[in-house]
From TrEMBL:
GO MF, one example: UDP-glucose 4-epimerase activity
Enzyme class: isomerase
Organism encoding this protein: Labrys wisconsinensis
EC id: 5.1.3.2
Keywords: Isomerase
CDD domains recorded: SDR_e (cd08946)
UniProt-listed Pfam families: Epimerase (PF01370)
Highest taxon, organism lineage: Bacteria
Tagged with keyword Iron-sulfur: no
InterPro entries found in the cross-reference section: Epimerase_deHydtase (IPR001509), Lipid_A_modif_metabolic_enz (IPR050177), NAD(P)-bd_dom_sf (IPR036291)
Protein known as: UDP-glucose 4-epimerase
Domain NAD-dependent epimerase/dehydratase: 3-212
UniProt entry tagged with the keyword Isomerase: yes
Amino acid sequence: MTILVTGSAGHLGEALMRSLRAAGRPALGLDIKPSPFTDRVGPIGDRDFVRDCMAGVSAVIHAATLHKPHVATHGEQAFVDTNVTGTLVLLEAASAAGVAAFVFTSTTSAFGAALTPAEGEPAAWVTEAVAPIARNIYGVTKVAAESLCELFARRRRLPAVVLRTSRFFPEADDDAGVRGRYALANAQANEMLHRRVDIADVVSAHLLAVERAPALGFGRYIVSATTPFTEDDLAGLRQDAPAVVHRLFPDCAALFAARGWSLAPRIDRVYVNRRARVELGWRPRYDFAAVLESLRRDEDFRSPLARAVGSKGYHAETFAEGPYPVA
């Protein structure tokens, strides 16, 4: 069962290729950039190239994309060409080849403005039922690509699963305020409460989606670390998040203080992964409790896979302020 992985030179693509190779599973890496994990170099919008790559493939994991960090550096047409047309080309080729599973890597950024509650409102409890409100061209094109996957599942019987992943990149936040207030590890540890996931868990979700796609036909799932919060915590998270966290994790304050870390004063959204756990059988290993356990042992809370993949960035050039320009 050869799995075609698009975006094999990127964060997730490399993590998938590393994991598949380590498991001895046949995998073909495709990317527009050469890399040690890329077998075929070319654009996903090239129909002839994609058709040739699809030969002998039984499943596709489509992780190639223009990301949010490209919004200020790439035009809207480039997003349409890569995220929409590229996905369409892959779907057409996969359907024609009789591929058994198509897994599309989407993003929780697809929810857009729906993630930000009004002042005075509780934090948002974000499930798959929340309707997206596009914030930028990235979100628009990812939602459009999701819809193409659903269309092909229904009209052409191509089993397709959409995974809306939360943050797993290791780079610093694009918000200067966050970078100024928190050390990188501190900021990302905080995010494990509500809006981050370890790349090792993202990989396991994708591989489970490949297995489950034929039975599901179509599915859309949030892939984020399991939150410790419930809906009863939402008002408190918007008013005094540390009080909620300290109630749930009494030794958090001491563990953070020993490193000069602090919790975010407020949390505005909580991603809920329940559907993925129930329907995919996904069991993420890395959450905030695991972060604290690593701190007790004075160890890095990231998975070995996350450390192996490391930081890649999103652009060939560097920028004077921040990891990338913000539109």
